[in-house]
Amino acid sequence: FRLINAEGKATFVRFHWKPVAGKASLVWDEAQKLTGRDPDFHRRDLWEAIEAGDYPEFELGLQLIPEENEFDFDFDLLDPTKLIPEALVPVLRVGKMVLNRNPDNFFAENEQAAFHPGHIVPGIDFSNDPLLQGRLFSYTDTQISRLGGPNFHEIPINRPTCPYHNFQRDGMHRMDIDTNPANYEPNSINDNWPRETPPAAKRGGFESLAERVDGEKIRQRSPSFGEYYAQPRLFWLSQTPIEQQHIIDGFSFELSKVVRTWIRERVVDHLAHIDTKL
């Protein structure tokens, strides 16, 4: 994403949610036993912790990169598969989310929740991250199909805390009843209301970044996306011997179920590019 300040200056941003309690994982044997005994283990653990007042907390952090520094890294900043090393770009913690209650109605509050990366507030804009660009369209299409129409944002669980208004009207599963005859501007039948909020520098409305584009825009991945192994190698070498053995056991188990020999060979070839000992 990008952050846009009041002067219209853009800064690349990567958002992080980090659990205050830290991270813990299950090893293969534990996962198999728990899955057989209690398939809802993680869900139950979360529910019981909240009911007991042991609220899970997550810190919101930002990694900020000025646009003029986009090419200072040995990978493409817009490659969603790459991590930005925190040693180079520290995570600035700006907030906290606390899960302080369980849902009263699981269907209404969980099953109908519609997350969407395109629902943003003034001050945030989109980057050219190809994964993000694809999701901006697909999430709308998915929620329309899953929740029955274009008004999924009016379902109570999806409504913002701060009310907002737009020119959208009617359609399947409309929640509100509009009595104003005008849902467009300019108009002469309602004193020219509603009207669009001016951009952020004036009144706080949304305005896309005025971005200069050089060169030709083509449907092709940049060569800067072509390095696949450096970060997996760093991750592998950062693991303890026991953790490395868990990774090896996991790959061995999954590949043992693959019938086609050439597929196993391709996977092993990729692993050899990460580390010859792997």
UniProtKB/TrEMBL annotation:
Gene3D superfamilies: 1.20.1370.20, Catalase core domain. Keywords: Heme, Hydrogen peroxide, Iron, Metal-binding, Oxidoreductase, Peroxidase. Residues 1-193 form the Catalase core domain. Belongs to the catalase family. HPII subfamily. Its EC number is 1.11.1.6. Its cofactor is heme. This is catalase. GO terms for cellular component: cytosol. GO terms for biological process: hydrogen peroxide catabolic process; response to oxidative stress. Pfam families: Catalase, Catalase-rel. One of its GO terms (molecular function) is metal ion binding. It is an enzyme of class 1 (oxidoreductase). InterPro entries: Catalase (IPR018028), Catalase_clade2 (IPR024712), Catalase_clade2_helical (IPR043156), Catalase_core (IPR011614), Catalase_haem_BS (IPR002226), Catalase_immune_responsive (IPR010582), Catalase_sf (IPR020835). The keyword Oxidoreductase applies. The lineage of its organism: Bacteria, Pseudomonadati, Pseudomonadota, Gammaproteobacteria, Enterobacterales.
